[in-house]
Automatic annotation (TrEMBL):
Classification via InterPro entries: DUF347
Protein name in UniProt: Membrane-anchored protein
Taxonomic source organism: Streptomyces sp. R08
Region (Disordered): 1-25
Pfam family, one: DUF347
């Protein structure tokens, strides 16, 4: 047996580069399930905020502080997860729906800020978040919420969409005096128009998504008010307890289904793609 003696200057071949690790997205794929649960969460946000304000005895400010603290805890858990988890994610959305509603209601009911002002301020705040997010990350797509920075921008944008949707929805309802059912129909038609503009007129997917995301808030609130408010006020009188419990049960069933089937999981992409 012979051995080859390395010649002077020879170096060992470098090891092959390690394959890039996949990046896990922290939000679900946008499917029919996504929009159904989103509307249900906005409905719960409206009815649960009213329920807590009426029954908890803490006042609007006290309830706001309590729900904000719960939201902060859930968001800490959400940020610490390595990938999208249906239960944690949708719990955060449900809580942020309640908090967004309470923020708008506090400004209007406790501080007397006109709805025109709150709507304008929340719209500007949301626009600022989007501008900073895009300048820092180069995208507003929810298909790439795979870093702490992008996730922070995402949840901040979600909070302002709920607050804006609450203020704008209340403003439209008061100014047009449509009633809950007609208001829900109006916002549903607006979302349909966005979908048509996206599919037929080339409106960008990201722009279409965020416009629809804002519009689902007043849609869900109108549905919640229609179901929960007394018949004399234009509702069907189910009450906030029954309406909240009903919608929470449906949300729980859908979230469990998604957690098991993973039908809303975005496949990971490799770094640099």
């Amino acid at each position: 047996m012979t051995y080859e003696i390395p010649r002077s200057g020879d170096t060992a071949a470098p090891p092959p580069p390690a394959p890039p690790r996949p990046r896990r997205n922290k939000v679900p794929e946008v499917t029919a399930y996504f929009w159904i649960i989103k509307v249900l969460c906005t409905t719960v946000g409206e009815t649960a905020a009213d329920l807590l304000n009426e029954k908890a005895g803490l006042g609007l400010t006290g309830v706001s502080l309590l729900m904000s603290a719960l939201l902060a805890v859930v968001l800490v858990v959400q940020f610490r997860t390595a990938a999208y988890r249906a239960g944690v994610y949708w719990l955060a959305v449900a809580l942020i729906s309640v908090v967004g509603t309470l923020i708008s209601d506090n400004l209007t009911d406790n501080m007397g800020v006109p709805l025109e002002t709150t709507t304008t301020v929340f719209a500007i705040a949301l626009a600022v978040v989007f501008v900073v997010w895009y300048r820092r990350e180069g995208t507003l797509s929810i298909h790439s919420i795979d870093t702490t920075g992008r996730e922070a921008y995402y949840w901040l944008a979600v909070l302002f969409t709920f607050a804006l949707g609450t203020a704008a929805g209340d403003l439209v309802s008061e100014r047009m005096n449509l009633g809950y059912w007609l208001a829900a129909t109006l916002f549903a038609l607006a979302i349909g128009a966005v979908a048509i503009a996206h599919r037929a007129l080339g409106l960008g997917a990201v722009v279409s998504f965020w416009i629809a995301y804002v519009l689902t808030r007043p849609l869900g609130a109108s549905i919640g008010d229609y179901l929960s408010q007394p018949t004399g006020d234009g509702g069907i009188g189910l009450g906030t307890v029954v309406t909240s419990a009903l919608f929470l049960a449906v949300i729980l069933g859908l979230v469990v289904h998604l957690a098991v089937t993973r039908k809303d999981v975005i496949e990971p992409v490799t770094q640099g793609s």
